[in-house]
Amino acid sequence: MFGIFKRKKEISKGGSEIHRHKDSNRKDWRPRIPDESCIYLDEICAYFDKLYPNRETTVFHEIVSDLVHIDVHVMKPTPEDDFYVVYTTGMSDLPMAVPNEIPNAQDYKHAELFMFLPSSWNPHSETSTDPTLIRGTWAIPTIKFFARMPHEYKTWLGGGHTIPNGPDYDPFLEGSELSGVVLLDYGGEDGSYLIANDGTRINTLMLMPLTRAETEYKLEHGMGALIDRLEEHDVPMIIDMYRKSAV
Predict the structure, then answer these.
(1) How far apart are CA 106 and CA 98, in angstroms?
(2) pLDDT over threshold 50, residue 132
(3) 3-state secondary structure of 93
(4) Of 189, 50, 178, 192, residue with least CA distance to 112
(5) Residue 13 dihedral angles phi and psi, to the nearest 5°
(6) In terms of Cα–Cα distance, which of 180, 164, 177 is closest to 242?
(7) How far is CA 247 from CA 58, 97, 98, 192, 241, in A?
(8) Rounded distance, CA 152 to CA 97, Å?
(9) Is 130's pLDDT higher than 70?
(10) Which one of 14, 21, 105, 221 is CB 3.0 to 4.6 Å from 225, fit for a cystine?
(11) How far is the C-alpha of 207 from the C-alpha of 182, rounded, in Å?
């Protein structure tokens, strides 16, 4: 789905460090043993239950896992908060390869991802062949890809990171301008992270799709400028796959 390029350090005009990775071509299979998977499951679920209470939750369990076992939790809408909350568990089982020159690098080695989806989204369309439901098929595979990505490519993900959907910015869905993502530090009153019982800090990063113009604007002008544009155009936190570009 996502093109990954060879790693080469460079800085954009907006001050963003750019990492390019090529396909890993890894041939060894490193299965994740179920008994060693989702070691922070209870703490992560409790964190999201506190932020978004009184929701029924279902789980898309990963059957076969390589490197890490990624499950996707779907918290259903409520009358008060009419949107889905979708989050991962298992990404934080292993530390990411945060460069040592990053200040307080230890604080960024573990993370989980989440996103908000509209109540019209149908999570059970993930395996549907009905073309009227096909719009829902991108969400769960996409968040699982990003959760495994840092371990697969020996890199890391943090707030403010933007990633295109391949070198040509392929749209996620036909008819959509959204063709990349930005990760945002977005959490509750205690911040966008939790502290596990063993003292490990686990950051919770919100995944928000972007258009190509928005991604390139961020690289040109920086994260603060992108946030200003998104706010000026009232881009919602709840993902609208067919919204117009803010740039």
Answers:
(1) 8
(2) no
(3) helix
(4) 192
(5) -60, -30
(6) 177
(7) 36, 32, 31, 27, 16
(8) 11
(9) no
(10) 221
(11) 6
Predicted TM-score (pTM) above 0.90: no
| Alpha helices (H) along 29-138 | 41-51
Rounded distance between C-alpha atoms, residue 40 and residue 202, angstroms: 9
| CB within 8 Å of 89: residues ≥ 6 apart | 38, 40, 41, 44, 45, 70, 71, 73, 112
Nearest CA to 141 out of 42, 207, 186, 52 is that of 207
Residues pairing with 191 in the sheet: 188
- Within the chain, residue ranges assigned H as helices are 41-51, 139-152, 212-221, 223-232
pLDDT, tens digit, for every residue of 76-125?
999 999 999 999 999 999 999 999 999 999 999 999 999 999 998 877 66
How many residues belong to the chain? 247
